[in-house]
Structures are given as C-alpha cells and as structure tokens.
Amino acid sequence: MCVIFSVPIIDICSLPRNRLQGKVAVITGGASGLGKATAHEFIQNGAQVIIADINTELGSKVAKDLGPLAHFVQCDVTDEAQVAGAVEAAVGLHGKLDIMYNNAGIVGPVLPPSIAELDLDTFDRVMRINVWGTVAGIKHAARFMIPTGSGSILCTSSMSGLLGGLGPHSYTISKYTIPGIVKFVASELCRTGVRINCISPGPIPTPLSVGQLAQFYPGATTEQVAQIVNGLGELKGAKGEEMDVAQAAVYLASDESKYITGHNLVVDGGFTCYKDIKL
Ligand code: NAD
After folding, report:
1. Where are the beta strands (DSSP E) in the chain?
2. Would you say residue 6 has pLDDT above 50?
3. ipTM of the predicted structure?
4. Is the shortest distance between the CB of 80 and ligand 1 below 6 Å?
5. PANTHER family annotated for this entry (predicted)?
6. Rounded to whole angstroms, how far apart are CA atoms 116 and 171?
7. For residue 2, how far is its CA from the centre of ligand 1 (angstroms)?
8. How many CB atoms within 10 Å of residue 36?
9. pLDDT range class, residue 246, cuts 50, 70, 90
10. Is the CB of 31 under 6 A from ligand 1?
C-alpha cells in the first residue's frame, strides 16, 4: 500500500505574530542593520525591546520610530558597567529579562596585511567588541536569568566564522570564537533552563557589510555596493535580507525552540555550502 503524505506549505506571512508575547528583550547593536530589523520583528511579535547601542543619536531615533514597546539605553559593550546597565534597565522597566541578543559587532580595517604583520591593537579592539562584549552580555543576562530558570541568549557569529578568508584576520578570529563560547556556556546552562544559541548570517546589505565592501569599489554608490553584497549570496541561492536574520532570531528567542541550545544557526542561503566562494 502506498501512503501519500501531503506536506502543507507554510506561508511565512501567515505565521502567528505573537510568538514573543509579553517577553522582554535587550538587543545590543540594535540601532542599525540586523539588530534594528530584529528589534522591529520582536516588537511585531509582542515583545518589549531595549535597544542597547553605542550610537545614542541613532538608537534614540530608532526606539522612537519603533513606538512605545521600544526603549533606548546608551551602551558600549566594551564597558562592563554599561552592559550591566542595559540589562538592569530592562529589569527596572519591565520587571524581567527573557531575551538577551548580543549582536553588536564591527569588522575593523578591511585590507589587513599578512598575519605576519597583523596589528595587534586592531585585533584587540575587534576582539573587545565582538568577543569580550558578547561574553559581558552573556554574564549579565545569566545573572538575572539563572534564578528565574528561563531565558534565551542569542549571539552573532558570521559566515566568516565558518570559513577562512572571508574577512579580515581579527574579524574572522572573533567570529570563529562565538560558536565555541555558545557551546561551552550551553553545556553549563542546560540544567538551569536558560538556553544560548548563535546565528551566523551570510552576506546581507547593512551599513557594516556595505561599508566594508565599499572600500573595494571606490566611486560606487551605496545602492550599487548593496547589490554587490546581495550578489555574493544570490550566487548560491536566495538573496539575503535583514528580515531573514530577524525571523531566525524570533524563532530562537521564542519557546518554539525550547529544546534547542548550543546551536549555531547558519542563515546564508547556502553561501557557505558552495565549493568555490570568491569575494
Ligand atoms: P551594523 O553596522 O548595521 O550594526 C551594528 C551596530 O552595532 C550599530 O548600531 C553600531 O552602533 C553598534 N555597535 C558598534 N560598536 C558597538 C559597541 N562597542 N557597543 C554597542 N554597540 C556597538 O551591522 P550589522 O550588519 O547589522 O551587524 C550586526 C552583527 O551581525 C555584527 O555582529 C556583524 O558582525 C554580524 N554579521 C553581519 C553580516 C552582514 O552581512 N551584515 C554578516 C555576518 C555577520
């Protein structure tokens, strides 16, 4: 006998929009690009969001535009007191912290010399924001989440943390580190009810990626460089948009992923599966 299963096709627009109802989130680097899109998507799904960013002007504007469910807190992730302050602001305003998204990041200088000439001050700066800042966010979120026995911590790695040669030395090393931190912390926290996962985005046009590639294309407009960024991903599959990462973050932040921890979710349209990546 042959049984034919009918698989329903999921229209992403028809997914329920209350997947984070009543949850409280802090997003570092929430004033721009992927963090900003995620703040928007979290709010669309019923969350209250603290945008924690070093850029006060932009962060305040973004929070205002997002409406009453968003607040801005000035936060440089290289300053432990400010990271603690962002978490405490969430708890002070809303009485709890459910989601901590350690997303702030920089690339650093684009054309590094050979590793033999690596500028270790630059390396320090990139590691301080991308790695130290992430660890500080994990630490201060865990302080509040462990006693409550729940919470979802998200971190941002990159396609550059999966393959060599996709970014400057410092950036690549910093992004390789993130899935390791996530695995290690998940092994500790899995008995506490607190989950931790990371997302590795592929090329998606944002001020960070467009700014990085623009240096290879002097004279090109922002739109032209954004098309080039998209072209990198499109070569291997779908064209990446900020919302692709934001929706992955909603899933990992929500209780739908309650049995997932220590995972690195690659959101790259197949970019890192392709055998012959040329930038
Ligand atoms: P973006 O430049 O648009 O946003 C980064 C945000 O981080 C900005 O608002 C900036 O003000 C903030 N920030 C920088 N330094 C900070 C600090 N010290 N403290 C607090 N905030 C700080 O970049 P994006 O593309 O949205 O990048 C977000 C994350 O995604 C980064 O970790 C980046 O490495 C990662 N990523 C991006 C791509 C991509 O193609 N856009 C691909 C892979 C990974």
Report:
1. 24-28, 48-53, 70-74, 99-102, 151-156, 194-201, 264-267
2. no
3. 0.99
4. no
5. 3-OXOACYL-(ACYL-CARRIER-PROTEIN) REDUCTASE (AFU_ORTHOLOGUE AFUA_6G11210), ALCOHOL DEHYDROGENASE-LIKE PROTEIN
6. 16
7. 51
8. 26
9. very high
10. yes
Q: Report CA Rg, the chain.
A: 19
Neighbours of 165 (CB within 10 A): 10
Tokens 């997914």 locate to: 15
- For the stretch 126-144, pLDDT in tens is 999 999 999 999 999 999 9
Is residue 101 flagged as an active site residue? Answer: no
Contact 51, 31 (CB under 8 A): yes
Residues 162, 119 contacting (CB under 8 angstroms): no
pLDDT-based confidence at residue 5 (cuts at 50, 70, 90) = very low
Residue 239 Cα to ligand 1 middle (Å)? 19
Phi (first) and psi of residue 239, to 5 degrees: -85, 120
Residues 175 and 130 sit within 8 Å (Cβ to Cβ): yes
Residue ID of nearest Cα to ligand 1 atom 10:
29
Q: Measure the N-to-C terminal CA separation of the chain; round to a whole number of Å.
A: 51
Q: Is the CB of 109 under 6 A from ligand 1?
A: no
Mutate to test the pocket of ligand 1, among 129, 206, 228, 265 (most ligand atoms within 8 A of CB): 206
CA of 104 to the centre of ligand 1 (A): 5
Alpha-carbon span 132 to 168, nearest angstrom: 18
Q: Which of 101, 171, 251, 259 is catalytic?
A: 171
